[in-house]
Amino acid sequence: MEKLFKLKEHNTTVKTELTAGLTTFLSMVYILAVNPSILGDAGMDPAAVFTATAVSAAIASLLMAFLANYPIALASGMGLNAYFSYTVCTELAEQGIQDPWKIALAAILVEGIIFILLSLVKFRETLVNKVPANLKLGITAGIGLFIAIVGLKGAGIVVSEPSTLLTLGDVSSPQVVLALVGLIIIAVLYHFNVKGSILIGILVTWIFGMIAQVGGWYVVNPEAGNSSLFPSFDGGFAPTAPTMFAFDFSYVSGHLIDFAVIVFSFLFVDLFDTAGTLIGVASKANLLDKDGNLPKVGGALMSDAIGTVVGACMGTSTVTSYVESSAGVAQGGRTGLTAVTAAGLFIVALFFSPIFIAIPGFATTPALVFVGLLMISSVKNMDFSEDMAGAVGGFLAIIMMPFTYSIANGIMFGILAYVIIKVFTGKVKDIHPVMWISAALFALKIVTLIIK
């Protein structure tokens, strides 16, 4: 252990690292309940998604441990999975495409390969520094709002209304009541620094749901989308095989620009999500050097890139570093042994798939809304006083994601606004080439929308 992870050098012990790994796992294991639910809405098999999510998380976390020796675990990213299902797959389905998730997986595969190449030439860390801070923060906050509205919609707290676009759902329904109770539970547990507060909130909400079903308040009605809340163990505890290599590249030839925008949006969100997480968690673990740089960042970014490729091949959305790893760091985690522990626990969780798959959407709503809260908190670091281009771009990213129900639209309007305002305020020199390329790509996307 000492030779592999240099425990003494990082002033830690095996016991501390194991405890930290357990803490990190408990803080992020909610993804095993949430991801099958979200990707299931895109037409994927929830059981297969569960297996893919657990295995890809384990592999990526092990890569992080041995390539970078960082106490950071990885799994399918929140926000990226929502973009996968509710933007990419929804828009493709509206075009009459069958199994749109296969095209989305192909886009993730391409994104992962591009990330590997960018990591090899050390371009990713340079790229991150050239995108305006306000835009990065606005994108993060916007994704938080988007995740929150996805959760609210899933529990029926927010429903469509022709005259007002959105309105409050039936507050007497068990789904709405229990989802709101679950959110309060998570908030209270989080306040008291309870380990695994999000997971506990999901499980307690689910248990209350089962009690409601037994008492007759929650009525099972598959036609209305109300399935039984009790897990079925008919198939035993053996995990379902993942959907391997389910890629569809036939869409690319006739929709090259649309496919490129999909890939770029995955790429852009994952890029800053990963960078922000690595820097944030590493700073808490005192892993930054005297210049504020992250040693072995290349290995960390490569872990993320390979994890994304592995996840796509197995049938799950983009794999990324988890900010919840900071919970393990708070428990003393300082080395890759923390990530190894979390990886091992993801493998153990594979054999409890019937339990995770049975967790209903309204029980995961509290997790989605609370993660949205954590992400939107980045808005407090935005500077609205000096850089008007960055402020407007960041603000458009925040509002366009939830209001157009698309993460890609938020990124698109944010980048275009930034570039255009910089041009008209005489600050063309401030625009980095990566922003010009991004703006040109999104401008082409708008052209294709107009032509259609």
UniProtKB/TrEMBL annotation:
InterPro entries for the chain: Azg-like, Azg-like_bact_archaea, NCS2
Transmembrane segments: 20-40, 47-68, 103-121, 133-152, 172-192, 199-220, 259-281, 301-323, 343-376, 388-421, 433-451
Main localisation: membrane
Membrane topology classification: Multi-pass membrane protein
Localization: Cell membrane
One protein family per Pfam: Xan_ur_permease
Family, per entry: Belongs to the nucleobase:cation symporter-2 (NCS2) (TC 2.A.40) family. Azg-like subfamily.
The protein, known as: NCS2 family permease
